[in-house]
Amino acid sequence: MELTKDEENALDGKQGETLALAYRTLVAIGEASNADRLIPIEWAHLSGVNYNTIGDAGKEFLSQLSRDATFKVKTTVNPMGFDFDSVSNYKLDDKFIENQRSIKNSYEKMGAIPSYSCIPYEIFDIPKQGTHVSFAESNAAIYANSFSGLKTNKEGAFSALASALTGKSPCSDLRDDDVRKPNLTIRMKIESRDELTYGMLGYFAGKVAGSSVALSGVNDLDRRSCKSLCAGMGTSGACGMFTFGEEEGEKIDFDKNEMQKIHDELNTSESGDLITLGSPQLGLEEIGDLALMLKGRKFQKRCMIFCPSAIKGQIRDLGYANEIEHAGGELLFDCCTCLSPLVDNKEVDSVVTNSVKGAYYLKTSNKVDVNLKSLKRIVQEETK
Amino acid sequence: MNVKVIVRGKAKGSLLVAKNPINFLGGIDKKTGIVHDKKHDLFGKSIGGKILAFPFGVGSSVGAYTLYSLKYNNCAPLAMICLKADLTTASGCAISNIPLVIASKDDYDLLQENKEVTLDAVEGKIL
Predict the structure, then answer these.
(1) For B6, which of A28, A55, A159 is closest by C-beta distance?
(2) What ipTM was assigned to the predicted interfaces of this complex?
(3) What is the domain class of A267-382 according to CATH?
């Protein structure tokens, strides 16, 4: 990689150990991904916030780093393990709470905006078309590339952190317009569609595609389906973006047969003890939708609904929160279905969700069975 | 031999050569540096204070923090040589300041257990 004189100096430690660490990380990842140089980025979104994902070693690392590190560009952060405002309502051990608090404090000390959200694209203003950003949350990276006109790789926790500290990222993969051009088209052959179908299309695409994929026969995406598609894709593979319409090169079909295989892989139960909605977190539009669907109905079991605290005031003011709570839904902020310690396999055997991403992590991390069905079916079958 | 530099630095020490890939999160005791994955060909050996050669890293990206813990607990390898650069190993070496290089398959096959070598991960050479 070619570095500027300033970058060389920082790498050599002439601007302190924190920047040396950050540049070592960018150069290591750049060399590993055949980047030729570093380029400026305007916004970093960090993963590795939930104590369940980074553990004690991650907590200690961030605590050390935060002694003298400051983020150089706008930096937002992924969800935590729980909502500090409501944690006393849940049986969570004090150690987890203290460890999570330490991680929260470290990020905020370095200058992170306390967004604790996996949908930064929905709660922040989007920079102008073509701007380079560094997003570590996979659904957010895919959404940013495919819908927001931004450019990012599907960053890891360390590359995004190093980008936040330096305002730079290795110029490789999806930062190159040639790589952004898909060489595989997936033809959507399912007629009846909802967010779950699109989540499974994403999960299929992630398994078979390279860095970028074209989707044909897709033209009716609402916000819920968009997010579900991005999250499904981010869960199963390395693919970091999609375009619409057919491209030159190989073409494969996503048909009933393929969809059934994915449903069989992720759906391991015909019912559940608990419902979770929100992986990715639900934004204002989806919460409004949900409030409307739940009017006059009541959940027959616990239902946890995850959203960013950025919309907390609005959903209260608009009456959505009241409507949802009246139906028995529990609104949780700053956290998400994925890797939440609030879903404990000592208390529940199986969980109902409409999220493909949620299903994957509930199975692999929380080790519970999953009843995967669309939001429409959840409201029909789980409320009265 | 010439190698590609991923994380810069210099080290001198004896080689520990693994046949299997390493899962840092699940396979290494971060307090001692001892390989505790029973299926691994280095099972029971310590990677601390050695120049560790292994094909590549596998498993969770959180494994990068294991390398940081090893360094913190003074039981990290002096340097590492891989066949290909995975992002977990690259990030882990970068945050822990452990020199990391990539060798070609032919060169990698020449690496001998216990041999004393000097690794120059600035110029990209192993002597």
Answers:
(1) A28
(2) 0.92
(3) alpha beta
